[in-house]
Design goal:
Helix 3 packs parallel to helix 4. The radius of gyration is 23 Å and the shape is globular. The strands form 2 sheets. A 12-stranded mixed sheet has the order 3-4-5-6-7-8-9-10-11-12-13-14, with helices on one face. Strands 1-2 form a two-stranded antiparallel ribbon. The protein is built from 6 helices and 14 strands. The longest helix has 14 residues. Helix 5 links the parallel strand 9 and strand 10. The chain has one domain. The protein is an alpha/beta fold.
Length: 365
């Protein structure tokens, strides 16, 4: 964070002449901040007392992104700074382990080592009653055991809840929310316009020979129908698994599978639009962390009477654009590029960069 201080900080020495923490001559006027929180090198402490929160002008912030790599849950941190975030409009949280949100979680992970003794912290929740301006919320790495009503506020317009699996990216029981959770969320935040959620196996939902309970999960119908209860929903992104259902959970040699076919992606979109006509875009994608899985992204949009399906691969330099009317594909075109295009749109595009700061300074002179 040294570049943010931009030469305006000084370091106070302690009484024994050892270097102290940096302080600021004046309170900065930052309104957007991307904050990486991790334990400092050489520090043997694991406490929020290691963090000097007075350096940050919390009351000015309108957008805040936190990447939490600290060794204690961020529950207490959110609890402490929330009363100061009165102007915050967008919040993005990304913890490197779901127990950093839910330290008492017992799902599929042995309670040894770092998480053997769960610290006593407040239950994780987003205090919307204190952050009254919050409209945009992203939480990455969170399990589905935390009640949905702790994560939803009545003024939300955009929500992302994503628990990326350590190996397979959403192929675990702690990722997808139940359809009843989604119904509760739709009642609390009925005006939500953009939604991003984990989903299970959906490739055979409209396959003519699929056997319920064998080839398809009936819960997924209820899940999709619950999503349609958001009365102003315009954009939906779902994160499906990219490995077969019976793959060993911790094997690094599993064969990846295509989570959905082109025609099934069209069917899912049409099914959702039949119940919620405001829906304009459906995206199906996943981003595995530690395995080299050749993931794809399906993006479906409505354009008049036509449906446009665009598929693309991560780190490849082409896109496949198809035009459909109903369940019939009428045209297909492959576009190639000199350099690979973005696999997914960058959700952090609003975060300040050094160039943004200098450009802003030039404009205000």
């Amino acid at each position: 964070m040294s570049w943010l201080l931009n030469g305006t900080h000084r370091v106070k020495a302690t009484q024994d002449n050892t270097p102290g923490r940096p302080t600021l001559h004046k309170i900065p006027s930052w309104t957007e901040l991307h904050l990486l929180v991790r334990r400092g090198l050489g520090s043997g402490h694991h406490s929020l007392r290691d963090l000097d929160l007075s350096l940050i002008p919390w009351t000015n912030l309108r957008r805040l992104s936190i990447l939490w790599e600290y060794t204690i849950p961020l529950n207490q941190f959110i609890h402490d700074i929330a009363p100061k975030l009165t102007k915050l409009q967008a919040l993005r949280l990304h913890a490197t382990h779901h127990r950093l949100y839910h330290p008492a979680c017992r799902h599929d992970v042995p309670t040894t080592g770092l998480f053997a003794d769960a610290p006593i912290v407040p239950p994780f929740r987003i205090p919307f009653e204190l952050m009254r301006e919050l409209r945009d919320l992203e939480i990455d790495g969170i399990c589905n055991h935390i009640p949905i009503n702790r994560l939803i506020g009545p003024k939300l317009r955009r929500l992302r809840l994503h628990c990326e699996d350590v190996l397979w990216s959403v192929c675990s029981a702690e990722s997808q929310r139940s359809h009843s959770d989604i119904l509760v969320a739709a009642k609390i935040a009925p005006d939500l316009e953009q939604l991003e959620l984990d989903v299970g196996y959906i490739q055979n939902l409209w396959h003519p020979t699929a056997i319920p309970g064998v080839d398809l999960d009936m819960e997924q119908y209820a899940f999709l129908n619950a999503i349609c209860k958001f009365r102003r929903l315009r954009s939906l992104r779902l994160f499906p698994p990219f490995v077969p259902r019976d793959s060993p959970r911790y094997s690094r040699t599993a064969i990846n599978c295509i989570p959905i076919s082109d025609d099934q992606a069209i069917r899912v979109f049409e099914h959702l639009r039949a119940q919620r006509s405001s829906l304009q875009t459906l995206s199906l994608a996943a981003i595995p962390s530690f395995v080299n899985i050749d993931t794809m992204c399906w993006e479906v949009k409505r354009q008049g009477e036509k449906t446009i399906l665009t598929t693309k691969h991560r780190a490849r330099n082409y896109q496949h654009r198809q035009v459909w009317i109903g369940q019939r594909r009428i045209s297909s075109e492959i576009k190639r590029f000199n350099t690979p295009r973005k696999y997914l749109s960058d959700s952090e595009c609003w975060a300040l960069t050094r160039n943004d700061v200098h450009h802003s300074n030039r404009r205000t002179r």
